[in-house]
Amino acid sequence: xxxxDLLRNNAKNYGNEVALVEINPQIQEVRHVTWRDYDLVExxxxxxxxxxxxxxxxxxKSNRMANLLLSRGVHKGDKVAILLMNCIEWLPxxxxxxxxxxxxxxxxxxxxxxxxxxxxxxxxxxVLIFGPxxxxxxxxxxxxxxxxxxxxxxxxxxxxxxxxxSELTANCSSADPMIELTDDDEAAIYxxxxxxxxxxxxxxxxxxxxxxxxxxxxxxxxxxxxxxxCIPPLYHTGAKMHWFGSLLSGSKAVLLRGVSPKYxxxxxxxxGCTIVxxxxxWVQDILVALEQQDLRKEDYKLDQWRLMHVGAQxxxxxxxxxxxxxxxxxDYDTNYGLSESIGPGCVHLGVENIDHVGxxxxxxxxxxxxxxxxxxxxxxxxxxxxxxxxxPGVMTCYYKDPVATAETIVDGWLCTGDMAQLDKDGFIWLxxxxxxxxxxxxxxxxxxxxxxxxxxxxxxxxVAVIGLPDPRLGEIAAAIIEVKPGVLGxxxxxxxxxxxxxxHFDSEDDLRADVExxxxxxxxxxxxxxxxxxxxPRNPTGKIEKPKLRKMYNAEQLVAHENKA
Length: 565
Known about the structure:
The chain is of the alpha/beta class. Helices cover about 30% and strands about 25% of the residues. It folds into 3 domains: about 5-260, 3-Layer(aba) Sandwich (Rossmann fold); about 305-435, Luciferase, Domain 3 (Luciferase, domain 3); about 440-565, 2-Layer Sandwich (GMP Synthetase, Chain A, domain 3). The strands form 6 sheets. It has a 10-stranded mixed beta sheet, with helices on both faces.
């Protein structure tokens, strides 16, 4: 069943119930707008602290978008790109594109103008829909776009080089165009993270989208009464595919614009959220805020919150143990996936397997896994190899890149590029990205294992381990460590923070000595040879930006070497 049928069903069965809520805490004046009709002034909608949309209007908005595109000659095989921050317009636009039979192309809102140009051309985009945050970047590339490419603008004060989405769709029919779709029709192109250069274009069929909805609902048992809090960017497969579980159950979802522990607790409390998907840095921030009493659980309505799940990157076991101390009744799940496997769910821990926290889990619903050596042979439990997955959510191909496709999909198996091992109980443990493995003095070092150990230090908030060149060993492990507030500097720790195990250090040298002593718990060859205190950069989906760190500290090391010479 194409994913568009789920929206039609919800409009029919739950038409007057709330489908989506947008919360924008950065709007100072608290105003609430129920977006049920079409006579609201666009500026009124844009300035609302809280906007909501029913399933009926969600469906009608998608129909208006579809009919606009069809009237401009868009049809099956065409590509329509979305370049928007999370907002209540995002998903109706997404489904409107799908209802035409065209392929939707979500774009990363961090893209520079050159990356936007590259992705639009790579995916053969016919229409680009963008918001006010991107006017400057889009304007830069307009001269290089072919003349018949359409540009629609979502927001106030439409620039002269584009057309107004709100004005055009207001004059379009809200009737469903009912374009026939099958599971084998092309549905979406998602772009990879681009950690090794410009991103790859990942093509999925409708089957992949429908599979992700079923997987999410099977894993987390969403009912019509659940309320899902969505914080990560909708352009990424992770956020949207988790929301597809809400789509399948016809339940409400909340789009939160802006991330802070207070914003999250406010949204959970005010909207009655029962399911929250978090990234590792947000979990860290919440725990720090609780430990330092910047947040007090008793000030919020949190009893209905039943599930906290984390994905997009390895999750330290110590982090979840701290979480369960604060929220002992929460179910917990971690989800593993790639954009090539339509986001999360090809491997998941499962809420019943909290005793195996730290593992990424077992094959997800409808998925198969194997761990292989360099020759493609399945390795024994306990041995490290590359994780491969197989299932109905595997991408069709890298669009217009047959060489990369052949390297990644082998005999129907998606080679993930992640190194993993299977334990005696059948649980998969992520070791590291293939390209992130550090070879030091002939030994393979897996940064994730070192990171997991270091996160157990009570003063460490976040850590990234990278390889840096070394003339003797080839590479050494360097740990970039972000400490918790109050550990260094003039700020003093509260009594509550001290009781939780935090210490205060007057200098980085004193803290470094303490961390080095802590690392004696690691085998000698795994201990970081260099410790750097700095912020750990993560992208919008929570992944550590290790290429950026390697470039930064490789350059720094080169300058130091030249100065020494």
